[in-house]
Amino acid sequence: MSRMLVFGSSGLLGRALMSRMSVKAVGTSLTREAEDRVKLDAVNAEAVRNVIEEVKPEIVVNLIAERRPKFWGDLVSLRKVNVDTARNVAEAAAIYGADLIHVSTDYVFPNGGPHSVNSPHLPTNSYGFTKSEAESAVRSENRDAIIVRMPVLYGSVERFDECNLSELVHRLYCATQPVSLDTWAKRRPTHVADVAETLAQIADNPQAWRHRNIHVSAKGWHSQFEMGRLAAQLIGIDFSMLNPVSNDNPERPRMVDLELDTYTPFLDRYRSLEQGLAEVYESYVSVG
């Protein structure tokens, strides 16, 4: 396995990938420094070039993104995090001859599908718009980059608000009255450890994937209400505490269906939400 440098290694997917790679990876983080993690602001292009020159990775993975809806209204800041950092990492990886894996989102597409890996983008919110811009910036700076799109992720958390599913568990765990949960939109929640395994296997043979777009996703569709029922059953909360509502939101596509390629590494072994939810609950309890 080649030496890897992971930008955004302290996040949910970053920690899973660093754990999978073990001593073969060095990570960066804006705020959380650690033994295998360098503190770095990737908005600074010179700092990005310097760390790549110092680490001399064969594979660079960019996981940096601001996905949280509470920041969608600040397009200037959102572009700095989602677009400028992507451009800086792609440019520096190309300069130093490292292969690049850039992680993107299903939100570059509108409602419907299945969307192929080369379908035109038509995002419906500022997060998807900036991630679409980021893909264009990456392709402009680094034509051989490998772009991997995925839906909403979940896994072991360090804070209750670290992923949508742990936030949902927190709401239910603390509820003293019925919690309203959406039945309208559906996503395919995907476990970070499964995505990390796919990324690691791609990194093991990057020449086979250069200049390609790849889709990864678990197979099961779930609304927020359906996820809530699974979580309530796990926690031991009566279903009467769940209030189904339909929140039709023009900024949020109802269902974004990614067309999946059966040749994508490890994709056939992605776990279901029913299999992965217990891990989220256990980590939530441990940090709560």
TrEMBL record:
Q: Locate the RmlD-like substrate binding domain: which residues?
A: 3-261
What InterPro entries does the record tag this protein with?
Answer: dTDP_dehydrorham_reduct (IPR005913), NAD(P)-bd_dom_sf (IPR036291), RmlD-like-bd (IPR029903)
Q: What is this protein called?
A: dTDP-4-dehydrorhamnose reductase
One GO cellular component from the entry?
methionine adenosyltransferase complex
Q: Name one GO molecular function term.
A: methionine adenosyltransferase regulator activity
Q: Does the keyword Secreted apply?
A: no
Q: In which pathway does it act?
A: Carbohydrate biosynthesis; dTDP-L-rhamnose biosynthesis
Biological function: Catalyzes the reduction of dTDP-6-deoxy-L-lyxo-4-hexulose to yield dTDP-L-rhamnose.
Looking at the Swiss-Prot or TrEMBL record, what is one Pfam family this protein matches?
Answer: RmlD_sub_bind
SUPFAM superfamilies the record matches: NAD(P)-binding Rossmann-fold domains
Q: Which cofactor does it need?
A: Mg(2+)
Entry's Gene Ontology BP terms: dTDP-rhamnose biosynthetic process; S-adenosylmethionine biosynthetic process
* Cofactor: binding details: Binds 1 Mg(2+) ion per monomer.
Catalytic EC class = oxidoreductase
Which keywords belong to this entry? NADP, Oxidoreductase
Q: Which organism is it from?
A: Sulfitobacter sediminilitoris
UniProt-listed Enzyme Commission number(s): 1.1.1.133
